Automatic annotation (TrEMBL):
Domain of life: Bacteria
Signal peptide location: none
Protein name: Qat anti-phage system ATPase QatA
Gene name of the record: qatA
Domain spans labelled KAP NTPase: 16-385
Organism: Ferrovibrio xuzhouensis
Length: 659
């Protein structure tokens, strides 16, 4: 089962209401030009809404619906001209009767060619204010081209250049009665010619669907929007633009960098978008009930097929429930089996999976359909990998799903859990159990406090919660870090406790991201100590007493593991994570001072920041180590970057003054 990420006409998100509303709005006043925006984050379902709009106009003879994807034209030609030409050619292809309107068609294409030749001949910028170059600008280009003819050495192909000159001159000559002589008239002439083309085609309304605009580079996005605003904004023409508002605002800022940041209460970028988009629709994120329903429909649809009659009956039931999600709740197993009838048995696996991971996905993906699909695909592939390797029974989908939520949205937490579990003899992470206990204890305390509050003001109810007291009494530095993060606590409260599980099978199927067993198999129980040394400065300073209890060989092993990860990070302009941990480790085990200086000497001097010069005063105390460090400071003062040189010489003077 692989879920595709293509746009679809099958509505699993109840976005048909948005498509239906837009269709009705366009039908109400077909003679008036209008621009509608369909906004939403990447993966929210904008392309699918456009598909539904196109499907909604199927069979209407006097409405022509065309699609344009700016992303596909990016890098090939001017996006404004591409959009205009795409609309005109699409109109001709879908209306065969236009073959008899030869002169009207030629008139439209001649005016498109005017824009195209002017653009290519001089590389002129079509500004936001006029849209096309003036005749004076084109006359200048003709003179420039004619000048090249006198010097054939400058010409790649003389015949081509002569043709270009004649073509541009021809654009400046009157073509007959009614032809324009200035820019405003040229724009109006194009609109009139295009309007005549719609008349000849018998089109009462042209609907242009523009997709993937937020994937385009800023210049392409703006050019496409300018074509909508300046060239094809004629009567009977409607545009539906699907784009993430934030990305379009970014494109405006990049395309017009000299504009002030704001104008009144809003930014110029926002004003630009609002002047172009007359009617905005924003696709909302899925809520808890909607997410769980969507997951169920995705999984059942993957099992039965989108065209299956029983599956479509289930969609109908789901839509009824989604009309009032605040009262109806998600699809339950009984409802699904009733809707599917005799095909319910084929959907048993999908139903079981939906029940297991629906609540987890609702909590973790923030209701984004694309993230939900990607998550499900990765989840199922990993489960099948485990089955193919022969340990599928050791991988429970709810446990894998919760771990993957951390992997996707809280990667540092996932790495910490993985390192601890891979190093443990039983594959468990004790701090994880304590974290989940604290998260659930908080909820239990709130529940218990309500009746107590009426009788005794409730203060003692929270304090006396046994779970919470147990967690506080055994709180480690790592657990303290986790409990200080609201996001981590929210993740820990997700249904399905995994702290008591052997996580090694789950980490093994996650090896496509990182191998957690290479270092762990060598370090064993010391891997957890290595992770702690990558904590914040204040956290690692509190580890000195525990580090002193390590045997010297163990300390040396930990030093090498930390050093290797720092060097592997390959970032030394600012203090890398783990450097403070090395200082505390060496302070606890002075025999490692030479190892520390070796580490510092090996760092690339051309990429070192000034951090490397300080912080070692209480660490390097041995005579030989201090002398080596002084010599290293002198080297940095001569060969490092400007900031490193200054810092090294300053520290060296201070050290020599103290002596």
């Amino acid at each position: 089962m692989i879920l595709t990420d293509n746009e679809t006409k099958v509505d699993l998100l109840n976005n048909e209401a948005i498509a239906t509303t837009i269709i009705k709005l366009l039908r109400d006043r077909p003679d008036q030009p209008v621009t509608v925006g369909v906004h939403g984050d990447w993966g929210a379902g904008k392309s699918s809404v456009l598909e539904m709009i196109e499907a909604g106009f199927d069979g209407e003879a006097k409405v022509l619906c065309l699609k344009f994807n700016g992303w596909r034209f990016q890098g090939f030609e001017d996006a404004k001209i591409a959009l205009i030409e795409c609309i005109v050619t699409g109109l001709i292809e879908k209306r065969p009767t236009l073959t008899s309107a030869g002169e009207t068609v030629k008139d439209v294409f001649r005016r498109i060619d005017w824009l195209k030749v002017a653009k290519k001949a001089g590389g002129l910028a079509f500004t936001a204010f006029t849209g096309i170059p003036t005749p004076d600008q084109i006359q200048t280009i003709v003179c420039t081209l004619e000048g090249f003819l006198a010097d054939p050495a400058k010409l790649a192909t003389k015949d081509n250049l002569e043709a270009a000159v004649e073509g541009v001159k021809g654009l400046l000559k009157p073509k007959g009665e009614g032809d324009s002589t200035n820019v405003p008239e040229e724009i109006n002439a194009f609109r009139k010619a295009f309007d005549d083309l719609l008349d000849k085609a018998g089109v009462e309304q042209l609907v242009v669907l523009i997709d993937d605009l937020d994937r385009c580079l800023p210049d392409t996005a703006i050019e496409t929007l300018e074509a909508v605003r300046l060239f094809v904004f004629t009567s009977r023409t409607a545009f539906v633009v699907a784009a993430d508002e934030a990305m379009i605002e970014y494109a405006v800022r990049k395309h017009f960098p000299d504009l002030p940041d704001t104008t009144g209460p809003q930014t110029y970028a926002r004003n630009y978008l609002e002047k172009l988009i007359q009617v905005p629709f924003r696709i909302p994120a899925l809520g808890d009930t909607e997410t769980r329903t969507y997951v169920t429909l995705l999984l059942v649809g993957a099992e039965l097929g989108d065209n299956d009659a029983a599956f479509n009956a289930l969609i109908t039931v789901a839509r009824e429930r989604l009309k009032r999600p605040w009262t109806s709740g998600a699809l339950d197993a009984a409802t699904v089996r009733t809707a599917l009838g005799d095909k319910a048995s084929r959907a048993n696996n999908a139903l079981a999976l939906s029940d297991q991971i629906g609540p987890i996905l609702a909590s973790g993906t923030k209701g984004n359909p694309r993230q939900i699909k990607r998550f499900l695909n990765t989840l199922v592939l990993r489960q099948r990998t485990a089955e193919a390797r022969g340990f599928g029974d050791d991988v429970k989908l709810p446990v894998l799903a919760k771990l993957m939520l951390a992997e996707r949205f809280l990667p540092r937490l996932f790495d910490q859990i993985a390192a601890a579990a891979a190093a443990a003899a039983n594959g468990k992470c004790p701090d994880l159990s304590a974290l989940e206990a604290a998260a659930t204890a908080k909820d239990d305390a709130k529940t218990a406090a309500k009746p107590e509050k009426a009788a005794a003001k409730g203060d003692d109810a929270v304090k006396s919660t046994p779970k919470l007291e147990a967690v506080k009494s055994t709180e480690s530095a790592l657990l303290s870090e986790w409990l200080s993060s609201p996001a981590i606590k929210a993740w820990a409260a997700v249904p399905t406790a995994i702290g008591g599980e052997d996580l090694r099978p789950y980490l093994f199927v996650a090896k496509d991201r990182k191998d957690y067993f290479g270092a762990a198999s060598v370090l064993g129980h010391l891997a957890a100590v290595v992770e702690q040394l990558f904590g914040g400065k204040f956290a690692v300073q509190g580890l000195e007493a525990d580090l002193k209890r390590l045997a010297t060989p163990e300390a040396a092993q930990i030093f090498e593991a930390v050093r290797g990860r720092i060097v592997g990070g390959d970032s030394f302009d600012t203090e890398p994570p783990g450097a403070a941990g090395l200082a505390v480790l060496v302070k606890a085990h002075p025999t490692l001072q030479a190892n520390l200086v070796d580490f510092l000497e090996a760092l690339p001097r051309d990429r070192l920041g000034p951090w490397v010069c300080g912080g070692w005063e209480g660490v390097l105390k041995d005579g030989d180590a201090t002398q080596r460090f002084d010599r290293l400071l002198q080297t940095w003062g001569k060969e490092g970057g400007a900031m490193l040189k200054a810092a090294a010489m300053g520290v060296l003077r201070t050290r020599q003054g103290v002596r």
